[in-house]
Design goal:
Elements lengths: L2 E7 L8 E3 L4 E5 L6 H13 L18 E9 L5 E9 L2 E6 L2 E2 L12 E4 L5 H4 L2 H13 L3 H22 L6 H38 L4 E6 L12 H18 L10 E6 L2 E2 L6 H23 L4 E5 L7 H9 L6 E6 L13 E7 L2 E2 L1
Parallel strand pairs: 3-13, 3-14, 8-12, 12-13
Antiparallel strand pairs: 1-2, 1-4, 4-5, 5-6, 6-7, 9-10, 10-11, 14-15
Helix pairs in contact: 3-5, 4-5, 5-6, 5-7
Length: about 350
């Protein structure tokens, strides 16, 4: 599903014009702060109607303006052309696909599936539990609309349960415990299955590149079963009852899939604390490569890869190696500083743009 072009109106510092992106690989070369990452962000925004750099759409608007819009042309696997239009004005977002209003962002899933490589990916290896859960949830959400619905429903139930804990309306807890258990178990099962499949990819990938074997993702769920990988509803309700006094004191739900932990282990021991900075950075990059492979295996489709200055902290040999082992993609977009040896990575199908002050040539 290659991106054909994007037309900008008041998008960050980029000029109000269309950029032709019809190429298998596209490199953006320029100094920091010139607009390279803004272009990658616009591709991601077109695909998911959200930014990977800010939660506030208002921050994307060019200085001195009061709105922005993107018009993105892309091709699907059948070589048919489509258009995604996104606009933000007066605090409201409007999304259209081929002229029809998109009411829910989940309708964009599989439109232009993007796998993003960026500096913040390091959080998936060394960050808070929430960021590690986010990575697994993202892997699932890229192709499973039902998972998106489950997560939304769980969050709604959780908010209601936390509210009655704050208001001390404890008579309602039994009802919400059943709802939380039923929805949470489905999420836990999907996470458990996804991590099992992901480990088949990731462990071998990490060993092939680093020579370190036995590295895998370990899923430590808040709700544990004495007999199975996923607990029954009755087991979860019993856990919630045991935690109820603590929930009342803290006025929040102290157990559930929102408190699951995801760690990296090697031969049964936590791997990250003993890993070097380079190993951690490589771990984060390989997670993204694994995510792209996982997506392709689950959907039989190739993703669009977005690499935003992720090679800078690797030595030259590792940079070359990472570029050489990128999984199959529908299209590849990379950003580089002028001093980087990007010429050695390019292919006959590569288009190179020089970016300066939001302009491209």
């Amino acid at each position: 599903m290659p991106v054909l072009s994007i037309s900008y109106v008041n998008y960050r510092n980029l000029r109000n014009a269309a950029i032709d992106l019809l190429s298998k690989e596209v490199y953006f070369v320029g100094e920091n702060g010139q607009g390279k990452s803004n272009i990658l962000e616009s591709i991601y925004y077109s695909a998911y109607s959200s930014s990977f750099r800010t939660n506030k759409d208002s921050e994307i608007i060019k200085n001195g303006e009061d709105k922005f819009s993107l018009r993105t042309l892309y091709k699907d696997s059948n070589e048919s052309s489509h258009m995604i239009f996104t606009a933000f004005e007066n605090g409201k977002k409007r999304i259209e696909k081929n002229g029809k209003t998109v009411k829910d962002r989940k309708e964009l899933i599989n439109t232009m599936p993007c796998v993003l490589f960026c500096h913040d990916d390091l959080e998936f290896a060394v960050g808070e539990p929430e960021r590690k859960r986010f990575f697994i949830d993202q892997c699932l959400s890229m192709y499973d609309v039902l998972y998106i619905d489950l997560k939304r429903r769980y969050q709604k139930i959780l908010r209601s349960r936390n509210q009655i804990l704050k208001e001390m309306k404890y008579d309602f807890l039994d009802v919400y415990d059943v709802q939380l258990a039923e929805c949470g178990i489905q999420i836990q099962k999907k996470r458990n299955d996804a991590i099992f499949k992901f480990n088949q990819i990731f462990g071998k990938l990490y060993e092939d590149i680093t020579g370190i074997d036995g590295v895998s993702i370990k899923y430590d769920s808040s709700w544990k079963s004495t007999q199975n990988s996923v607990p029954t509803k009755d087991e979860v309700i019993q856990i919630l009852l045991q935690k109820r006094d603590a929930d009342k004191i803290m006025q929040t739900s102290m157990s559930g899939i929102h408190r699951d932990r995801i760690n990296f282990s090697r031969n049964g021991k936590n791997f990250v604390p003993t890993a070097s900075t380079g190993q951690r950075r490589l771990l984060a990059i390989l997670l993204r490569i694994g995510q792209a492979i996982f997506y392709s295996q689950m959907t039989e489709k190739k993703p669009v890869l977005l690499l935003d200055d992720v090679l800078l902290e690797l030595d030259p040999e590792k940079r070359q190696f990472v570029m050489g082992i990128l999984p199959e993609y529908d299209q590849l977009f990379c950003t580089f500083l002028p001093g980087e040896p990007y010429e050695r990575y390019k292919r006959s199908t590569t288009k190179i743009f020089k970016i300066k002050n939001g302009e491209w040539e």
